[in-house]
Design a protein that fits this description.
Length: 149
């Protein structure tokens, strides 16, 4: 993948997932090391808010849609809530208003978990909200030839 050819092969996608797995491992390790210091109610809230605001509305709309098409706002909500930038903003504001706390690890654990374990990244407008094989991509993969080095 490069700036002009924005796609990933199965191999490069697995490499990306492995990198996210390192972040997940580090975040989970910190949570385990500070288990007794975690406010678990806050942890659950931080973990859930990402999907409550970012995934569930789009998932419900997608399932209710007879065409499988839903508004772009659902994609924007998903991408905003599943962004490390948003997680950093939430953590920063929480830390300033209240105080830094280990419960904030729920944010990277959720995001790194989505990417590492499920392979989920941002959702482009041109694909179904829920994962589905696109025939255009199947055709592209069929025609794609790896460059021999």
């Amino acid at each position: 993948m490069d700036s002009l050819n924005r796609f990933e092969t199965r191999t490069t996608h697995l490499i990306s997932r492995a990198e996210w797995l390192v972040g997940l491992g580090g975040s989970v390790t910190l949570a385990l090391l500070h288990w007794g210091e975690i406010n678990w109610l806050a942890f659950a809230g931080f973990f859930a808010v990402i999907d409550v605001l970012g995934y569930l509305p789009g998932a419900i709309a997608f399932r209710r849609s007879q065409t499988g098409k839903i508004g772009r706002g659902y994609y924007v909500a998903y991408n905003v809530m599943h962004s490390l930038l948003t997680a950093a903003l939430i953590a920063g504001v929480w830390s300033i208003v209240f105080q830094p706390e280990w419960a904030l690890l729920a944010l990277p654990i959720h995001l790194f978990g989505d990417r590492a374990l499920f392979g989920n990244t941002t959702k482009p407008f041109g694909v179904p909200f829920e994962p589905a094989i696109l025939q255009e991509f199947v055709q592209f993969e069929r025609e794609y030839k790896e460059i021999e080095v």
